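Input/output pair, single chain:
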Amino acid sequence: MPDYEYGKGRVTESVQFISEEMREFENDYAAKSWQDYRDDKKLQKLIDRTVENILTALIEVCGAVLVEEGIAVGSYGEALKKCSKLFNVSAGEQERLSRLALQRNRLAHRYLNYRWQAIEIFKKEKDLLINLINAILQREEEKAKQPTK
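Output:
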């Protein structure tokens, strides 16, 4: 199998993007209520898009990690699950992470009845997501320290 390089440093850049989006979510949106969300269409769009960006970038990063490892997947949820398995995340947490792909789809495809539910699930699972991102970042830092072939 040929060597795969995801535009050297791209995973790290994507993780940094996720971190910035997570900070924005925490600072600007995490404390918003259902009523705040429901009553402000602009706020809805900002919250939805921020969470969608985080989840899409996470799926992209997980996909890149899996390709580097030669692991194939058939769906976004499977990418999150298999990537988290690489980092010794428990089976239950792998399943919870894989369900974030559904939340991403709800936001990306504007499933009106489920968008707030997707935001609430994201809030509930964000610490698990942060742990996975930190593990990926640590992997990237260790790879960077290794001598090149």
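The two ends are 15 Å apart (CA to CA). The chain has one domain: 10-140.
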